[in-house]
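ok trying this again, last paste got cut off
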Amino acid sequence: MNTKTLKILTAVLAVLMIVSGVVFFISSKGGDTQIINKDPEPVAYSYEQSEYSLSTALSVKGANGEIYLPTDFAGVYYSASLNGEVKFFEYANGAMNPSALEVKTVKANLKATYETIPVTVSYIEKDGKACGYGVFTSDMSKDVDVYSYAFVKLTAKPAGYGEGYLLLADFDKNNFYKAEKLYSEIYNFNLAKGTASTYVSNHTRMIDKNGSFRQDWTLLTDDLVKNLGDSKYFLSSRYYNESDKGRRSDVMELSNAYRPKIVVRDILGVWFVSDNNGMHYLKKNENGFANMNLVNGEERVLTQFEGDYYNDYMQCGKYLINKNSLVMTDLMTGTTQTFKDINISSADVFSVSPDGTKAVFASYGEVNANGAKVQSIIYCTADGTKAVFAEPLLFDEAAGFVWPDNSCVMSVRALDGTGAKVGSVVYTF
């Protein structure tokens, strides 16, 4: 994760967070000019004594140096390291404990850009299904030239894909500690044999500047896989610029056809749901953008939104909030609620509790006059309760916010003032 950044930031804090200065006061009374030098006492930032660390508005449930990310199983989390180690935990009564589920491993070889990437997947089984994770880095094999990193997830196929398992692969190391990843390869996986095969034809697939296949050919997210219902769709940004990956996508039908069928063209972002009421997605129009519903080939507008999706709004799953009006819309039901007395115009992160009653807004911040980066976090509820913090070392930008349940949220933070140790911390508010 962003450990290097944390260490640099901490070093800067130690040296530069001392406030000092000289104030010059000039008096011309009686023709005399007097200069008074004022040297205030140094004030240093203290992690232990920070407003955030001592806040009574937040109840800290525990931290032990692991970084926890959710699995497909409720209450079960995993942690992974770049050496390939994967561990599983269970959350109960405000604490994370090692999972009692047996951890199994399977070796797989992934074909990508005509190379073979070896990866060991650690997985657990529950309720007749398996879920697992694996990591590859260039330190593990000298035979892979194009890819220096790969993260894979073993997950049960959505119903429309048939029976069995998928391996989803992400090759962007910056996403390592993100709970919601954007996977760019889809493999049909035989768990018993450890064999993986691609679903989608690579004919006409272009090469990117790094010498690998473009990473926008097939796109899936964890949320999308959960919400495909009986359909067999995936997203693709292949017909747009590489910079549009995940920003503009076509909904395609899964097949090995030379050109998979496009079901919906040019949706906004990667939010897509297919259920008994048809397909749900966002799409730009001349008045801004709209929440769309497609049923039996007929497309209709459910809700119209004014303004620019990327500048004026933030989205977390099915929840969309206007950064100016503070109105949050449930895109599946159309219901709205308005948050009160907060300023989220500069927020970079938006995360909502599963029931939609609580939210976190976080800003990466800016470097102040002393050279320290000051972040901000707002914890708030729909009824107006809020806790606002602005100081260094609030959260790690390489990770996000995860909700163990509706009462608490988990984020990654430095666990002491040195920044040498980081881990997930659970807060109740």
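PB: full thing came through this time. The chain has three helices and 34 strands.
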